[in-house]
Amino acid sequence: MLVRLRDWIWERLGLEPIVAIAGHKEVPLHRHTFWYYWGGMTLFLFGVQVATGILLLLYYRPSADEAYESVQFIMTQVSFGWLIRGIHSWSANLMVGAAMVHMFSAFMMKAYRRPREATWLSGMVLLALTLGFGFSGYLLPWNELAFFATKVGTDIAGALPGIGHFMLVFLRGGEQITGGTLTRFFGFHVAVLPAITTVLLGLHLYLVQRHGMSVPPSVEDTGGPRGAMKFVPGFLLRDAVGWLAALAVLALLAALFPWELGQKADPYAPAPAGIRPEWYFGWMFQTLRMLPAHVLFLEGELVGILGIGLAGLLWMVAPFLDSPDGRGGRARLWTTFGWLAIVYIIVFTLLMYRGGGGH
Amino acid sequence: MATVHGLHGRLRVPAGRRGAVVILAAALAGLLAAPPLPAATKNSCVDCHRELEPEMARPIAEFGRSIHAARGLECTACHGGDPTDEDITAMDPDKGFKGRPSRDEIAALCASCHADAAYMKRFNPKPYVFSIAEWKTSVHCKLESEGDKKVATCTGCHGVHDIRSPDDPTSRVYHRNVPETCAACHNPEYMKGRPGKADQYEQYVGSVHGIALLEKGDLSAPACNDCHGNHGAAPPGVRNVAHVCGTCHGRVAELFGASRMKAAMDEAGMPGCVTCHGNHDIQPPSDDWISTAEDGACGDCHEPGSTADRATQSIIAAFRDLDRSIVTTDSLLQRAEVLGMATEYGRGMLREASDQVITARATLHSFDEETITAVAADGQGLVDRARDAAEGALRDWRNRRVGMGVSVVVILLLIALLLAKIRSMERPATEH
User: Fold this and answer.
1) Do B342 and A251 touch (CB under 8 A)?
2) B30 exposed, middle or buried (CB, 10 Å; 0-12, 13-18, 19+)?
3) What is the Cα–Cα distance from B392 to B404, expressed in whole angstroms?
4) A75 touches chain B (CB under 8 A)
5) Which SS3 state, helix, strand or coil, does residue B11 take?
6) Span B193-217, average pLDDT
7) Pick from B59, B72, B232, B75: which is nearest to B160 by CA?
8) pLDDT category, A272, cuts 50, 70, 90?
9) Which residues does chain B have within 8 Å of residue A72's beta carbon, measured at their own beta carbons?
């Protein structure tokens, strides 16, 4: 019966080329193979986000009058609503973490070398989209912390030279954060960002398949990989082990540390103490906090925004500035830049949680 | 005698001065036809009095800070005279100068403007209109008409030259300042020789109303005039006490008005609310009052062991049960909150139950055991729902942990199976 069903599907969908590609796909085995799993992990967590997000959509109502109450209803009245929201919130954070590990491992292993520049660029845009998901989703429960964190975030966008005010009005749907901003963020979160992400994710996966896994120059210089593992089933089964472990971690986090809802947003209330963004924006937030009011003749905040923007741009075009074969002095310089970036992000994120250095 | 209509309403003037008064009235009528003007550039009242000894100069400074000056009035509005005349003749009676009004003229003088709704309307579209008739109902007016020179008239409470708006926190009659203003006269020293005690202010300061208004700054708390009236100030009569208290304590007054207790008290000539709560020294009510014991409020009329005594015991038991179950449910909810569980529904129910506790104690004024215990039982029902919610949250918390444990075990089992599968798949390849 099952064989007949499989044959029926096979005949109609014509999946032979895909099966053939999957059958031929191999993953090089060497001391850095572990880092290859992080792309799949990010993809898995994205899948969890899509599934739990759709379930939340069944009850969530995107208006200033109803958003908070609907999330409260999900948390208290809907069967397993607390679990779905908890997993969605925790998984979002784990996904950003996994995407960052994936990006840094690709950077440090020089996986962006020719011909994988487009893979790198599409990955960078996907990371930016992931942060966009985080920023837009954070406001949706319409609670006090989210309201003021969004205010701070959009204020920063508003400080951009030239296009700042346009960006602020575009993001908020006006000068202030209102129910209109919530509706707009909801639109970004469930329609605009998923649509762009789907296209780019398809491109990214195609490029990974097209070019195969990159082997780091350091491995190539020391005799190359010790062998290769078939993607199906060996690597895929190991991927599944990681995914199951992530699922267990999510279950633990959702049950032991329920995601708080806090107080409903009140646009007329003063900002509560300790407003800070999600951890993945922490290093940028802390950088802006620690800058003096003025640097030479420029405003400190503007210098910070320009500096972060420039560093991000430099990071993005690394494949074109690093040495093409990933070897030599220039390559070592870029590797040092990568380590510095990792240390900077960790230190400044920790500083934000310590709460020091504010102006 | 003739009556002149003008700034000061209807003033009786001698026939010999009619001409001067008519001119003055015409001038004032012209002045009033236009909106109030700022102080004239030339004002001999100000120019001269400013140079006199402090006693005579003080009114100038005080008047400058008054509501009357702010509204554009001048000295002449009350004292008459001609401020454009730089000589002593400015104070010529022929120029309408009246000098210092005598004590018994003050109310009529103030009323000449403040009782004139049409005139007052130009300063405020919804003006307070003073009523001479109301003033005449006051103990102050009655005593004054009997020749008592120590009782308050308008200036006694409002001041003379430095009269401020009642909304101005520096005014003597600003709501929070009223008790002190009344106490300026209603104190044992000033009231010596008069019947009754004059310790109302001392009692009020320590009362629930006094603490609310004077210490906590709660402007909704009553000052003296809220119970006694202001321009018609008088102590409320025995039968009126419940109405006076009922202006704020509406529900309680309604219940008391419909109770058998009201009828019984009326018959016995007892002053309603005051019988149990007192008047100036009203203290926060306590459940201990609901008793026929020595310190209870019921013991003066009801014997221990009586039907009323048994009713008080049953009511007190219902109140205390309700209080106790609210406290225990609150701690259950707190436990659930500490564990990160959502308790909004339970908290809402408990808030309603706490409101019901207040309602139940208010219902005491129905003096009907069945009604009171029924309200307390409604409160108990709300507490039960809150407790169910709290226990449900704690049960959920335990179930979540069990569920999490089972899920993790299942996932670990799957991981073990996958690892075993990987090993079994790769073993032949390694052996080859």
Assistant:
1) no
2) exposed
3) 18
4) yes
5) strand
6) 93
7) B59
8) confident
9) 342, 344
> For the domain A2-275, what is the CATH code?
1.20.810.10
Average pLDDT over residues B326-349: 91
Structural element, H or E, at residue B10: strand B9-13
Rounded to an integer, what distance in angstroms lies between the CA atom of residue B390 and that of residue B397? 11
Residue A241 structure tokens: 């082990």
Q: Are B51 and B57 in contact (CB under 8 A)?
A: yes
- Domain spans of chain A, in order of start: 2-275, 277-359
Which pLDDT band holds residue B14 (cuts at 50, 70, 90)?
Answer: very low
What does the alpha-carbon distance between residue B235 and residue B241 come to, in Å, rounded to a whole number? Answer: 9
Q: Where are the beta strands (DSSP E) in A175-313?
A: 227-230, 294-295, 298-299
Q: Report residue A297's pLDDT band, with 50, 70 and 90 as the boundaries.
A: confident
Q: Determine the distance in angstroms separating the CA of A232 from the nearest CA of chain B, rounded to an integer.
A: 11
Each domain of chain B, given as residue ranges in start order, spans: 236-283, 307-401
Q: Which residue has the tokens 């070592």?
A: A332
Nearest-angstrom CA–CA distance, A195 and A201: 10
Q: Which B residues 338-367 touch A at CB under 8 Å?
A: 340-342, 344-345
Q: Which residue has the tokens 């575009």?
A: A170
Terminal C-alpha separation, chain B: 138
- The tens digit of pLDDT for each residue in B360-383 reads 999 999 999 999 999 999 999 999
CB contact under 8 A, B418 and A237: yes
Q: B73: helix, coil or strand? A: coil
Name the β-bridge partners of A29: A227
> pLDDT category, B238, cuts 50, 70, 90?
low
From A252's Cα to the closest Cα of chain B, the distance in A is 6
Q: Which of residues 107-126 of B touch A (CB under 8 A)?
A: none
- Which residue(s) pair with A26 in the sheet? A230
What is the 8-class DSSP label of residue B304? T
How far apart (Å, rounded) are the C-alpha atoms in residues B255 and B246?
A: 10
Interatomic CA distance for residues A188 and A145, integer angstroms: 20
How many CB atoms sit inside 10 A of residue A265's CB? 23
* Residues from chain B contacting residue A237 (CB–CB below 8 Å): 418, 421-422, 425
How many degrees, rounded to 5, is the angle at CA B252 between CA B246 and CA B255?
A: 110
Q: Tokens for B329? A: 């449910």
Rounded CA separation B289/B297 (Å)? 5
Which of helix, strand or coil describes residue B4? strand
B24 has a pLDDT exceeding 50: no
Residue keyed to tokens 């529900």: B251
pLDDT confidence tier of residue A324, bands split at 50, 70 and 90: confident
> What count of other Cβ atoms lies within 10 Å of the Cβ of residue A274?
8
Assigned token pair, A166 = 């346009």
CATH tag, A277-359: 1.10.287
- Asked if residue B305 lies in contact with residue B298, where contact means CB atoms within 8 angstroms, the answer is no
Which of B344, B400, B422 is nearest residue A238 as measured by Cβ atoms? B422
The answer to whether B273 and B256 are in contact (CB under 8 A) is yes
A277: left (phi over 0), alpha (psi -120 to 50) or beta: beta
Report d(CA B121, CA B117) in Å as an integer: 6
The one-letter amino acid at A69:
E
Residue B279: how many CB atoms within 10 A of its CB?
Answer: 18
- Residue A82, chain B, CB below 8 Å: the answer is yes
